[in-house]
Amino acid sequence: PNILVAGEIGSGKTNTTCALTLRSIPLGFRVAAVDAKADWARFARSYGGSAISIGPGRGNRLNPLDVSDALLAARVDAEGHPIDPRVLAKAAQLRLLEGLIEIRLDRSLQVAERTAVALALDQALTACGGQPILSDVAAALRAPDPDLAAGIARTTDEVLHAGDAARWAFDGLLSTVAKDLFDGPSTTRFDSTAPIVAIDLSDLYNDNANLSIAFTCASAWMEAALATPGNGQRFAVYDEAWRVLA
Q1: Is 2 exposed, middle or buried (CB count within 10 Å of its CB: 0-12, 13-18, 19+)?
Q2: Contact 198, 35 (CB under 8 A)
Q3: Which of 3, 82, 124, 220 could make an SS bond with 136 (beta carbons 3.0 to 4.6 A apart)?
Q4: Residues near 40 by Cβ (< 8 Å), separated by ≥ 6?
Q5: How far is CA 36 from the centre of its chain?
Q6: Is the separation of the CB atoms in 234 and 29 below 8 Å?
Q7: What whole-number distance in Å separates Cα of residue 165 and Cα of residue 174?
Q8: If you ran DSSP here, which 8-state letter would residue 8 be given?
Q9: Which residues pair with 200 in a beta bridge?
Q10: Over the chain, what is the mean pLDDT?
Q11: Positive or negative, the Cα torsion across 77, 82, 83, 84?
Q12: According to the model, what pLDDT value does residue 70 have?
């Protein structure tokens, strides 16, 4: 289930969300939040939770392609249905990559472009033992693997051509704030035992271009942690999400 809280600036959207989520903590719920302001980081500290501040000079980095060890070890979902954790993780990684590229291109990817990105992810996963970073995907877009290309009856030149726009978008992405904040191994872990985990992006609040990228990457990192079966009941909050949707 999902809830959308909308309203004018200052109308109490965050306070309403707090009333719903924070008052549920004594009932066994936990909260995970991505916030373009610093409100949820303050709440996390007040409730004995974990606050992760992401911004230039903060020293924190999140790898949005992370997959938790707990998910990789899982064989069933929360309802007891069999799952292939690597398939689930790869699907989420691919959605992230497509989303980041579409932000940069300001348009949807075409079928051939999606194929090139999917092959690049496959190549990066193999090259890095299943734990790639964004630069690994960029390298794969620049030099497609001949065997992967042959597997879909294409030449490397054809795959390279199909991925032209995605490659330029990705190279441009890694010249932005994403390079320092999201390109590399994560410097922190998601604390699944904390009553609240908040990712604070307030340093980028007035940087519209980079905030969309940061919000997308931070959300992917958080959702990868929340995808682990048996993680308990938790509210996932995206405060100021309109900054990305717009």
Answers
A1: exposed
A2: yes
A3: 124
A4: 31, 33, 51, 196, 198, 200, 237, 239
A5: 15
A6: yes
A7: 14
A8: S
A9: 35, 53
A10: 92
A11: positive
A12: 74
Q: Can you tell me the distance from the alpha carbon of 115 to that of 120, in angstroms, rounded to the nearest whole number?
A: 9
| 149 secondary structure, DSSP code | H
Contacts of 14 (CB under 8 A, 6+ apart): 37, 39, 239
The average pLDDT across 11-25 equals: 93
Angle between helices 134-142 and 164-173 (to 10 degrees): 150
The angle formed by the CA atoms of residues 28, 30 and 34, to the nearest 5 degrees, is 165
DSSP string, 175-200: TSTHHHHHSSS-SS---TTSSEEEEE
Residue appearing with tokens 């924070």: 22
Q: Single out the residue of 191, 186, 201 nearest to residue 53, CA to CA.
A: 201
Residue 177 CB burial class (10 angstroms; 0-12, 13-18, ≥19): buried
| pTM higher than the cut 0.70 | yes
3-state secondary structure 44-69: HHHCCCEEEECCCCCCCCCCCCCCCH
CA distances for 238 relative to 32, 78, 209, 223, angstroms: 9, 23, 18, 11
| Cβ neighbours of residue 9 closer than 8 Å, sequence gap 6 or more | none
Structure tokens, 196: 């609240």
Q: Which amino acid is at 39?
A: D
Helix axes 111-127, 85-105, angle to 10 degrees: 130
- Classify the phi-psi angles of 237: left when phi > 0, otherwise alpha if psi is within -120 to 50, otherwise beta: beta
User: What are the residues facing 76 on neighbouring strands?
Assistant: 82
* Interval 169-189: pLDDT, tens: 999 999 888 899 999 999 999
């519209």: which residue's tokens?
208
